[in-house]
Amino acid sequence: TPTIGVLALQGDVREHLTALASVGARAVTVRRPDELALVDGLVLPGGESTTIDKLLRIFELRDPLRARIKESLPVYGSCAGMILLADRILDGTADQQTIGGMDVVVRRNAFGRQVDSFETDLDVVGVSDGGAVRTAFIRAPWIEEAGRDVEVLSRIPAVDTQGRAVAAAGRIVAARQGPLLATAFHPEITGDTRVHRLFVSMVAGG
Ligand code: GLN
């Protein structure tokens, strides 16, 4: 059984712990470098990326985490976690930094104020064979550019379920680069655990 940490500085930590446990992982919180050293994979939860960035530096986790990512630690970033995994961000605050690792440009709060939050069903490569994934977007980012080594797993479709055109059509909202997985949405709050199942299989060596 792989041990998967959830970075527990801020954000929806409990939901990820529950989702990981429900797909058979040993899920533990990570707040200190010695806790990070013990995990086989790590989830960066949704929350507020600027706050998590500051706390990573205060808790002296930023450099150890970067080092483990360089050594191919599997990491799954959801929403704010996706921002943290991005090599470059747009619309960050002036002093905001990322951990980086994934060759993408992510735009923070990309979906705009009028649609701050919504739920939708999405096809996600390697996940949605049994039907579309139920996803929640909460002041979500999107991936604006993806490098050559990044596999796009999901895009916003051109029309919604009522057949209306969607402004964000074609935007990338899930991607993978080697052991790094990122989603703009939160699968952990809709009860759909298939993204977590994918991540657990990545940690197990898949
Ligand atoms: N808007 C948040 C940020 O910039 C992300 C929101 C979320 O994680 N649900 O960090």
Automatic annotation (TrEMBL):
What reaction does this enzyme carry out catalytically?
L-glutamine + H2O = L-glutamate + NH4(+); aldehydo-D-ribose 5-phosphate + D-glyceraldehyde 3-phosphate + L-glutamine = pyridoxal 5'-phosphate + L-glutamate + phosphate + 3 H2O + H(+)
- Output this protein's name: Pyridoxal 5'-phosphate synthase subunit PdxT
The catalytic activity of this protein is classed by the Enzyme Commission as 4.3.3.6, 3.5.1.2
Function, as annotated, reads:
Catalyzes the hydrolysis of glutamine to glutamate and ammonia as part of the biosynthesis of pyridoxal 5'-phosphate. The resulting ammonia molecule is channeled to the active site of PdxS.
Short name of any one Pfam family annotated for the protein: SNO
Q: Which residues are recorded as binding L-glutamine?
A: 47-49, 108, 138-139
- Report the GO molecular function annotations: pyridoxal 5'-phosphate synthase (glutamine hydrolysing) activity
Similarity comment? Belongs to the glutaminase PdxT/SNO family.
Does this UniProt record's set of keywords contain Hydrolase? yes
Q: Which pathway does it take part in?
A: Cofactor biosynthesis; pyridoxal 5'-phosphate biosynthesis
The gene for this chain is pdxT
